UniProtKB/TrEMBL annotation:
It is found in: Cell membrane; Membrane. The keyword NAD does not apply. Residues 34-180 form the Neurotransmitter-gated ion-channel ligand-binding domain. This is Glutamate-gated chloride channel. Residues 1-21 form the signal peptide. The keyword Glycosyltransferase does not apply. It is a multi-pass membrane protein. It comes from Temnothorax longispinosus. It comes from the Eukaryota. Its main location: membrane. Keywords: Cell membrane, Ion channel, Ion transport, Membrane, Signal, Transmembrane, Transmembrane helix, Transport. GO terms for molecular function: chloride channel activity; extracellular ligand-gated monoatomic ion channel activity; ligand-gated monoatomic anion channel activity; transmembrane signaling receptor activity.
Length: 402
């Protein structure tokens, strides 16, 4: 055999022998990961029942950092005062017993799917009503162990949590729903109610009902069936609207902003119905006065007028009227002529002109005057109420946000 053939055969044997190293000299770190896991979590090496030491190996508390990623908010129930949320919940802490060699930074972390193999913080949600983990297709949970012993725990959960609400500003309110506090952990979720829905479904319809009730002021006072049906219909519709609003809210012991609105609107509608009752009474009173006037012809009135005693002193020296000094009526047989009657003048102090009275004097009957006053009074008062309501509750909302 040739002396130089032995090195050549050894070289061929090395090249043909199966190697566990990949091309370029890279190590299979999947096998290294298994070896590291067996090394740090093997039997007798790690006890998950023991809490890790504090910072710098002291016996202090284990610091757990928590963060939440809210994936979706399903429902917010005002009646039950609860909300449902789906979130990704993460915890991170340091366990120096889980340190391992990262092979020069090439093994970034280890992954576990069994949370029971390492120590876990005893964190819980104190206001939880219902909750469940997500297991489709596999359990949505993982644990990552980093070379310095840091542990990251991540899980996707769905929770139904209680949220005591203050509905005084409903529906202009904002609610802060907390996940409560345990040790030093507290999470606050701020919910702002979308006002456009309530503006379209509640506020505008109530305004329209109030305005429709004012149509009664423009109808003739003799149109009793039309005015009664209009007033009763708007009143029942407003009452139904109020009942529907309260049915979707929990019973509370304080007055809400929506209660103030519906209560005042209901009062305006009821006031319009009472206004017609007053108009109807005034109309019947006017008719009764007209009937009395028709029973006495003008000639009778003149005869009674002619019996005034011209010698009666109706005026005091200072010019003020005095109707009690002398009798004003003489005997029927002692009448005076029209010439003497014309000479009898009573000088009264002229009243000051009043623009409102002069304007109302254009309407001969009291019922018509009540309708005319209501046409102006009701819209002005309702506009003033709107100005006060919106300025009060909108400013309260801004103060609550601060």
């Amino acid at each position: 055999m040739w002396p130089g053939a032995l090195p050549l055969l050894l070289l061929l044997a090395v090249l043909l022998h199966p190697s566990r190293c990949t091309q370029g000299g890279k190590v299979n770190f999947r096998e290294k990961e298994k070896q590291v896991l067996d090394n740090i979590l093997g039997p007798g090496r790690y006890d998950a029942r023991i809490r890790p030491s504090g910072e710098n190996g002291t016996d202090g508390p284990a610091i757990v950092r928590v963060n939440l990623f809210v994936r979706s908010i399903a429902t917010i129930s005002d009646i039950k005062m609860e909300y449902s949320v789906q979130l990704t919940f993460r915890e991170q802490w340091l366990d120096e017993r889980l340190r391992f060699n990262d092979f020069g930074g090439r093994l970034k972390y280890l992954t576990l799917t069994e949370a029971s193999r390492v120590w876990m913080p005893d964190l819980f949600f104190s206001n939880e009503k219902e909750g469940h983990f997500h297991n489709i297709i596999m359990p949505n949970v993982y644990i990552r162990i980093f070379p310095n012993g840091s542990v990251l725990y991540s899980i996707r959960i769905s929770l139904t949590l209680s949220c005591p609400m203050n509905l005084k500003l409903y529906p202009l309110d904002r609610q802060i729903c907390s996940l409560r506090e345990y040790s030093c952990l507290k999470v606050d979720l701020l919910f702002k109610r979308e006002f456009s829905y309530y503006l379209i479904q509640i506020y505008i319809p109530c305004c329209m009902l109030v305005i429709v009730s004012w149509v009664s002021f423009w109808l003739d006072q003799s149109a009793v069936p039309a005015r009664v049906s209009l007033g009763v219909t708007t009143l029942l519709t407003m009452a139904t609207q109020t009942s529907g609003i309260n049915a979707s809210l929990p019973p509370v012991s304080y007055t809400k902003a929506i209660d103030v609105w519906t209560g005042v609107c209901l009062t305006f509608v009821f006031g319009a119905l009472l206004e017609f009752a007053l108009v109807n009474y005034a109309s019947r009173s006017d008719m009764h006065s007209d009937n009395i006037k028709k029973q006495f012809p003008p000639s009778d009135q003149m005869e009674h007028s002619s019996s005034i005693d011209p010698s009666s002193e109706l005026l005091e020296p200072d010019g003020s009227a005095n109707f009690a000094m002398k009798p004003l009526v003489r005997h029927p047989e002692d009448t005076m002529s029209m010439d003497k009657l014309q000479q009898c003048e009573i000088h009264m102090q002229p009243r000051k002109k009043n623009c409102c009275r002069s304007w109302l004097s254009k309407f001969p009957t009291r019922s018509k005057r009540i309708d005319v006053i209501s046409r102006i009074f009701f819209p002005i008062v309702f506009a003033f109420f709107n100005l006060t309501y919106w300025s009060t509750y909108l400013f309260r909302e801004e103060e609550g946000d601060e």
